[in-house]
């Protein structure tokens, strides 16, 4: 089967650059899109074609389905890669792409629908024999929520059924607190996701966040590319990811990978995706959610597996089989990724938009930097604050961390506050260097 000849990249920033590079390496042309704020951006310069799709707010550009489809039509693109964020997990967009006669480089709309609703996804995981955290059905009012919480036992988490990326989650420790939190959580869910449906889960004490990278094709092949540990978080937003997960028993590692593959087969998944789990202190694991897209942190899986995940996405979208089997996949060394954001850690992580007046990137063996910026570019207040991702690989975990320490010393950003000083403290932290931490560890360190 002939693959796409021209791919519209329906995204911006570092992931747009990442996808354009993969397209070019595969002999495929790329079409960039840009808003008013991004007209001079790096990805616009790298692509063969570029289309202006609207004003700076994402709702008027990167979330405008009609503008994106018109851009694909006017440039004769035959496929669309949504990247992550924006419309990447929107089943209506996936269907619109397919209805327009284009190939979506991602999962089928049916899989996005099935795994996009978190309450439905829990039931689907159970049906596939994957353990889930004890939880409730969707709750519509306070009485139903209190009854569910009494049965589960406090503390519980109020979660948005349509949520994702750590948003729409609120911890509750008592019935009185639930009465305050539930209406606010439902309002936040309606505002963020257009759906106020919520459900409850039992809150696990100090869990780890472990996720499994998957690939699936049209030929019945489903493979996992080992796991990532994403437990270093602030307010459920990941700051540092690594692979493989430190301190995970080999038996747990094998079982969690098999569970992720089993779930992907159960839902008829295709292309790249990630299954996220919580792992407790006894190394019992529980399904949390599935992200039906390429993830921000995918480079650490690439680093330890030697697989170009975006290149595999292009192969799968072309109807070709995955280029390797599970048995052929070898895990080598260790890798960490640090998200360098334009935020001020010493000022409550306040966003720091503005011009990047100096931008000197680190280098050396095992060091990779993914970014959509160059010196003189501006961090826009309209989008997320990511400046770059620093990925460091080593023959073992200690070497990966040591290389990260050196890379951070070389990494120079001026003009905007950023998280390099925080990351420098993190990679030198004895507790983090010595083994696994839980999902609230960083917040405890920051207090």
UniProtKB/TrEMBL annotation:
Pfam families per UniProt: Biotin_carb_C, Biotin_carb_N, CPSase_L_D2
Keyword terms of this UniProt record: ATP-binding, Biotin, Ligase, Nucleotide-binding
EC number: 6.3.4.14
Gene3D superfamilies reported in the protein's UniProt record: ATP-grasp fold, B domain
Name used for this protein in its record: biotin carboxylase
Keyword presence, Amino-acid biosynthesis: no
PROSITE patterns assigned: ATP_GRASP (PS50975), BC (PS50979), CPSASE_1 (PS00866), CPSASE_2 (PS00867)
Organism in which the protein naturally occurs: Saccharopolyspora gloriosae
Enzyme class: ligase
């Amino acid at each position: 089967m002939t693959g796409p000849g021209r791919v519209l990249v329906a995204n911006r920033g570092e992931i747009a650059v990442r996808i354009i590079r993969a397209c070019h390496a595969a002999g495929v042309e790329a079409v960039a899109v840009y808003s008013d704020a991004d007209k001079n951006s790096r990805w616009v310069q790298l692509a063969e074609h570029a289309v202006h799709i609207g004003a700076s707010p994402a709702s008027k550009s990167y979330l405008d389905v009609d503008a994106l489809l018109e851009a694909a039509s006017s440039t004769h693109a035959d496929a669309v890669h949504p990247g992550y964020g924006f419309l990447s997990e929107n089943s209506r967009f996936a269907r619109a792409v397919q209805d327009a006669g284009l190939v979506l480089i991602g999962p089928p709309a049916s899989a996005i629908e099935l795994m996009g609703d978190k309450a439905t996804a829990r039931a689907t995981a159970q049906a596939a024999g994957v353990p889930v955290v004890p939880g409730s059905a969707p709750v519509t009012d306070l009485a139903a929520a209190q009854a569910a919480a009494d049965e589960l036992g406090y503390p519980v988490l109020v979660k948005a059924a349509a949520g994702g990326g750590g948003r729409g989650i609120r911890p509750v420790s008592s019935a009185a607190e639930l009465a305050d939190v539930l209406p606010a959580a439902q309002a936040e869910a309606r505002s963020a996701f257009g759906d106020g449906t919520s459900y409850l889960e039992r809150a696990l004490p100090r869990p780890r966040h472990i996720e499994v990278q998957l690939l699936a094709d049209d030929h019945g092949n489903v493979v996992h590319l080992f796991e990532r540990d994403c437990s270093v978080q602030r307010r459920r937003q990941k700051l540092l990811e690594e692979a493989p997960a430190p301190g995970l028993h080999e038996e747990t590692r094998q079982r969690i990978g098999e569970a992720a593959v089993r779930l992907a087969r159960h839902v008829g998944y295709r292309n790249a995706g990630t299954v996220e789990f919580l792992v407790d202190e006894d190394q019992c694991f529980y399904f949390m959610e599935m992200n039906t897209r390429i993830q921000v942190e995918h480079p650490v899986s690439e680093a330890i597996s030697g697989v170009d995940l975006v290149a595999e996405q292009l192969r799968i979208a072309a109807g070709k089989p995955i280029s390797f089997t599970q048995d052929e996949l070898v895990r080598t060394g260790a890798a960490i990724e640090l998200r360098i954001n334009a935020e001020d850690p010493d000022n409550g992580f306040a966003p720091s938009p503005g011009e990047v007046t100096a931008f000197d990137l680190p280098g050396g063996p095992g060091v990779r930097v993914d970014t959509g910026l160059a010196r003189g570019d501006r961090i826009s207040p309209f989008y997320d604050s990511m400046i770059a991702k620093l990925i460091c690989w080593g023959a073992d975990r200690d070497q990966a961390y040591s290389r990260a320490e050196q890379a951070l010393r070389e990494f120079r950003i001026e003009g905007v506050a950023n998280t390099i000083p925080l990351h420098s403290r993190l990679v030198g932290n004895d507790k983090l260097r010595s083994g696994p931490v839980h999902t609230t560890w960083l917040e405890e360190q920051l207090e």
